[in-house]
Amino acid sequence: MQAQRKDMCTQLLEHYNAEGKAFLHSIRTGDESWVHHYNPECKAQSMEYVHKTSPSPRKFNVVASARKVFFTVLWNMEGVVHMEYLEQGQTVNSE
């Protein structure tokens, strides 16, 4: 295992020595995780005209765990290059 790590690091260093910063710009990495998803109302959506003497409208709380989505993010040395949400039941493909 250590020998494989050393070989990989040596290869990366050789690429950097040959290509310089262009090599660093070509590196992309990513992460993925299941996240809770919900759409809270914005302030304008939640405003409702009522008369001063009328009781205020009832609000229902949105549960944060209403649904989960699979979140993937990819970035390079300049920042995020791709973000994607995948709903349950969908699959990841090359597109």
From TrEMBL:
| Signal peptide limits | none
Segments crossing the lipid bilayer: none
The lineage is: Eukaryota, Metazoa, Spiralia, Lophotrochozoa, Mollusca
- The protein here is known as Histone-lysine N-methyltransferase SETMAR
Single Gene Ontology MF annotation: nucleic acid binding
* InterPro entries in the record: RNaseH_sf (IPR036397), Transposase-MT_Hybrid (IPR052709), Transposase_1 (IPR001888)
Specify the species: Elysia marginata
Pfam families found in the cross-reference section: Transposase_1
